[in-house]
Amino acid sequence: MQQRMFIGSLAFGPVASRTTTTLSDTGFVDTAAHCPYPPYLAACPDMDRELDITVSGTGLTQTFGQLTVNLEPGVADSCNVLNHTADIAFRTGLRTYDAARGWWIDPALSDCLPLFTGSASAWRTGATQGTLTLSAPAALTRSLPLKIYAGTGGVEGTSTLSGKVKPRLRGFATGMTPVCVDTVNQIYQISDAPVQIGNVSGTPMPNLTVFEGGVPGAWSSTSTAGSWSYGGMVQDITSADPAAGHYVVEASSRGTFVRLGGTPVYPITISATGLFPDGTHVSRLHDVLRQVLVQDVGIPASTIAANWADPFDAVAGHAVPSDAGAYWDGSSSYTGADMVTTLLQGTLRKLTYDRDGTLRLIGITPAFLSLVPNLWVTLAVRPDEVIDIRQADLPSELALPFTCGRCTYARNYTVLTGSNVSPKAAVPSIGTARSAVTVGTDAPTLEVVSPPDVLTAFQNSDAAQVVANVINQLWTQPNRRLFHVTLPFARLADFKIGSNMILYANVDGLRTGAGGLVVGESYRGSSAGEVTFTVLV
Fold first, then answer.
1. Residue 77 has pLDDT above 80, yes or no
2. If I label 404, which of 101, 167, 225, 393 is the partner at 20 to 30 A Cα–Cα?
3. Which is nearest to 129 in space by CA: 28, 46, 40?
4. Domain 367-394+481-536 is in which class?
5. How far is it, in rounded angstroms, from Cα 93 to Cα 106?
6. Which of 293, 295, 313 has the alpha carbon at shortest distance from 303?
């Protein structure tokens, strides 16, 4: 005979004086560490976690939940997180009954499975109980420690820039409007970190191009009509004095700057490849995202999945094109979640975190469509296991089949039109992005539904085409469905968000089994013996 139990730990407060509280539902002792888990927990926590599976949606797992504790003496003080967001971790295990001695035996802590790892906030109390709001890891939602201008002159900008955020470039981006830190000497900042520097015949050449009114600069020693020519690298941009019609570049630990030898007539824009603060250069989307998480957001590298990779590589059986980059102009502050969304939006890649807090990158790919439902394996859910099943509504964006697959690329951060475009520019205007398109169903619905033009971080059409093909396979078809499937809690360990599932159920289309992708999970303290998965089939 076995009995399910739940234990957790709650840590909050300043780093120097962090308080950790342990708690459980019926009492637990970690005999190895001699650590008690008092029975403060009222029930298994309520939790909903789901992916936004839409093309235009956020690239993050959304988490909603709450934890209820009984207010025994001292509990209110030990769980009060009014002034700090807490880190919280929960596990679940099975006690076994010792009939000879007449009591329940606790499992070893190492035998308990992770249930939830994230953050807790919004402490509220009642007469006998208190509740905490549970959400995603706090590191993703906290304001980042962004670099700001001091407003003291030089590369720290004039007084008008005091307190404003410095721009940030990670990977390649084009059409960026740099921040003019010195209007007298025409000094512009592109990033708070260096840019990539190449070597041409022994001469350092930054991967950076200056445009004026849409006219690109030249790499020759003589400037072309209406453009600026590269004048070399310098150690200190404030002491450099470039020749007329030329620009010089500083790429150092304090950032990347350009100084013009003259005053432009039309707006200045930049195309460049940005490095990370430690000088790391990566180009593929998943690599850029990983470095952003570690170097910009401050996520410990140990919490990122060891097998971190582009999920589209596994589906294709080889590395797919995915070169990407993004630019944040410093016009407002932003969080780690904002940076993740900028990089992943529209790419069908999603950042999720496992129940133990490990960050993973998953893809909304058609791999589940090719699952062969003929084996009773761990992936399979049998009809007799299904406690309840009900079809859910697809997001409104996906409710009707698309007529084609589409994904944008080559985002232009500044659209030049009208008087901002030089008459010497090759085109009268510069668009915001281009689209890679695949033809969809031959028999479209009566309503013509086109995918949204979401500006992505992709650099080229090859990367966008991979996503357009997947949208075509998944969302130009009228038979995509979403189900909430309630199973015994014991199946929790077999599936997680991003897992494949072969679903058998007494529902049309599922009686002979169908491959599915787990895109959400839910459990309730009032139904500790059940877990509900959201499955896309």
1. no
2. 393
3. 40
4. mainly beta
5. 8
6. 293
